[in-house]
Amino acid sequence: MKKIIKVTQTVLIVLVSALVVFLVLNGLVKRPHFQNTTEPKTTATKKVIKKKVTLTAIGDSLTHGVGDATNSGGYVPLVKKELALQYQTQVTTHNFGVSGDTSTQIRTRVIQQEKIQKGLKAADVITMTVGANDLMHELRNNINNVSVAKIKKASKTYQQHLTALIKTIRQYNPDAPIVIASIYNPFYVYFPTLTDLQTGMTLWNATTQQTIKQFSQIYYVNIDSVMTKPKESILANNKKKQTTLNPYLYTKDHFHPNNRGYQAIANQFVTKIKAIKANWLYQN
């Protein structure tokens, strides 16, 4: 009898303990409520490509297209074609390139010409070639005796002029990304031993890169890497005595790009413009 009582007490203790634990846990852990609960629907916002895109190009002879056998505007129509095919959108271009223009002359045209101002205002993206003529004015009479010190001094002035040009452009379009090309060394294959000349070109490009850092939405495109010494180039004074050649240069002046050169330049522009498509391609 005593054994039965002990067993009963043990069972009761176990049951009471289990009940206490259950009540404690039930109080601490809240049950989920299922009444009138619906998960919020998450909808991904799909970016919509603009039906029409405007590219405005401004600058010197590279924008104008000197050396382009088709006389259609150098790299500009090539960029237009690629963007239209890539994104299935209508691309309108304005080409305001003038051969021989320096940075100050380009700025003067922007200030004086209403058609350029309108073209800038309409632009979704702006491309620019600038700086080569500024440097050429410094090298004009000293191509065989380049002074890096003088180029460095001249680059300070160029930096001021380029800054003023960009600020003027921004008065007419504060938002569109501006894509600025480097300059290249058309003399390299003919004077490969003039290392100071290449140093001067590199310094000039560094000045452009340094200048644009103070602005937002301005991007640098390196065309020097594809134009100065293409793979098929033949340097002067080569051991095989082959004719000196840069296959990307216009044979009439050995300075401006030919069609192959403009295609190489266009490819560099397109790569950069595609990389920043979020800043110009989609509807707001």
Automatic annotation (TrEMBL):
Q: Spell out the CDD domains in the cross-references.
A: SGNH_hydrolase_YpmR_like
| Coiled coil feature spans | none
Known InterPro entries for this protein?
Answer: Ester_Hydrolysis_Enzymes (IPR051532), SGNH_hydro (IPR013830), SGNH_hydro_sf (IPR036514)
- One MF annotation (Gene Ontology) recorded for this entry: phosphatidylcholine lysophospholipase activity
- List residues traversing the bilayer: 12-29
Q: Which domain of life is it from?
A: Bacteria
Q: Which UniProt keywords apply?
A: Hydrolase, Membrane, Transmembrane, Transmembrane helix
Signal peptide positions (record) = none
UniProt domain SGNH hydrolase-type esterase: residue ranges: 57-264
Keyword flag Transport = no
- Name under which the protein is recorded: Lipase acylhydrolase
Organism encoding this protein: Lapidilactobacillus dextrinicus DSM 20335
